[in-house]
Structures are given as C-alpha cells and as structure tokens.
Amino acid sequence: MSTINDVAEKAGVSVTTVSRVLNNRGYISEKTREKVYRTMEELNYQPNEIARSLLRKQSNIIGLIIPDISHPFFGEFANAAEYYAYQNGCKLLLCNSQLDPAKEREYIEMMKRHRVDGIIMGSHTLDVEVYRNLPYPVVTLDRQIEGIPFVASDNERGGELAAQLLIDKGCRKLAHICGNLQLDLLANRRTSGFERVASENGATFMTLQTNMDVFDQQEYERIISGLLTEHPDIDGVFATSDIIAAFVIKWCRKLGKQVPGQVRIVGYDDVRMASWATPGITTVKQPIREMGRLAVELIRKQMDEEDFSMENLLPVTLVERETT
Q: What are the transmembrane regions (predicted)?
C-alpha cells in the first residue's frame, strides 16, 4: 500500500506539499496540485482520514442535523451549508432526525465518534443541556439557547410585513397558520409580529397552530379545509411556510375561491417552489443561502477561537407575486 512518502517521491515534491494539498492549506500552485492528485491516482493512494484527524485534532467534517430533508427550506439550507463547508475545506455530514428524540441523540453520539469539528443543529427535540454540554462548537438554527450562537431570520419583522401587506390590500378578516407555539423556536416571533400589526390596524384575525409534528401535511389539509369552510369570509391568510401557503391555494381551488380575488395569501421562506407555483406565492424571503454560509462561518470561528456574535438575525424582505 502506497504512503504519503511514496506520493511525494514520485511527484517530486516534499511530504509537506502533499500534506498541504490533502488538507487544502497554504498556497499551492494549480500545476503542483494537479501533479499531486495525478500521482495519488497512479499509486492508488488513499489517505487515512481517521489518522489524519487524530494528528490534526480536527476532522474537517461539520455535522448538520435537520428535522426533515424533504422540506424545501431544510433542503435548500443543507445545500447552502454543504457548499460553504466545501469552500472552507470541509465536508458535511447530514442527518435527518424526523423529529425523533432517540434518533437525534443517536446522531449526536455518532458525530462524537467521528470527531466532527462542530454541529449545526436544525433539529431541537432534546433538552437544552444536551446541546450545551457537547464537546465541540455548536450553532443552532432558529433557536436561542444561552451560550450557543444562533442563526435565524428576523421572524418578527417577517410577520409584521405579511400582516401589513394583507391589510394594505384591503383584507379585513385574516387567518395565520403556524407551527405549534409550544415549541421553543424563534419562528414563533412570526406570529407575534403578525398579531401585533393586525391588532394595531383593527383587523379581525385568528391564529391556527399545527400539532407538534409541524411537517404533517395531513394536518395542513385538516386545518385549512376547516378554516375555509367554517369561515367563508376569510380574505387574507399568512402561512408560516410556502408549503402551507401552497396547501391554502389548493383548498381555495377546491372550494371555488379565487386567489387573489377572494383570498390573498402570503407565505414564508421564499423557497424555489414559491416562484414555480401557479399562482406564484407572495412570501417573506429568508436569506437561506446566507444563513447556511453564516452557520458554517460560526463553526469555523469557534474552532479558531475568533470573535463571533451569539445572536445572528438576518433581515427578511417581502417578495410579492400573484397570490396578493
């Protein structure tokens, strides 16, 4: 089996140069880099990742635990985090908790065994002490835990923008469909922002929560069908995700309600499908790509003992399309 010394000798470079190529560290000319890679391929050299991580005391692997990879927001966030991790010389270890505490705990233990450099936590089913006691850098997504930096959009401002747009469009009986507010998430601030602006403008409104499984699409169907049949005079809906907004469009069609003629709809996230839907969904845009970049950066800053901000609220913008 070939060694790093064999690669260096055949390529005509130093062992240090081969090591820099492997670890993506320091300046290496593209010509030298290609020569080293070509030699590794010729010798069928496979670096021992575990040995390298022990030697460096880092693995160049960042863990990401999310609740549901099939949800467009988390899929797009994972895509952005992987891109920026790779740009920083790291790989992303992706785990899908499916809101199962036992599964989330098992994934955390697995990441300890793999000596990950840090974890981005997008799934939050365990007690906060579990996250606080992890032996490596942690960043939370959309959840504030004392002592751990978080990344989130300005959820409260998003709720305000949604309510104000619906009111400015002439809506007078509003509904807000959100996740379960018992979950300790910063996304709950979308609701508080929406309700405050609706109250200040004298609009009639109601808030409907999902059950604890906030991704249960059958629950969306139940809530939305009940809302539109029991309250036929609802003329404005703010959904806490673009997926829920799409279900509102579906039920308006089933019940013969025109969008936006009779019901105006605002979503949240601005995932790609929001612009693909017919009609296109007006939505509050989270800067998903920037959130992924910042999460990776916060892991790196903690590793390198650089200064970083604990609270990272990114601005939101309103993207108006055909549903309003």
A: none
Burial class, 88, CB count within 10 angstroms (exposed 0-12 / middle 13-18 / buried 19+):
middle
Helix axes of 155-168 and 188-200: crossing angle, nearest 10 degrees:
40
Range of the domain at 278: 155-287
At a CB cut-off of 8 Å and minimum separation 6, what does 284 contact?
Answer: 158, 159, 161, 162, 190, 266, 267, 268, 269, 270, 316, 317, 318, 319
Query: What would the two tokens of residue 167 be?
Result: 């009111």
Same domain, 120 and 161: no
Same domain, residue pair 159 and 107 = no
Residue labelled with tokens 């959130």: 291
Kindly report the CATH number assigned to the domain that includes residue 139: 3.40.50.2300
Could you read off the pLDDT of 36-78 as tens digits, one per residue? 888 888 888 877 654 455 444 567 899 999 999 999 999 999 9
Residue 324 lies in a domain: no
Q: State the residue for tokens 């916060």.
A: 298
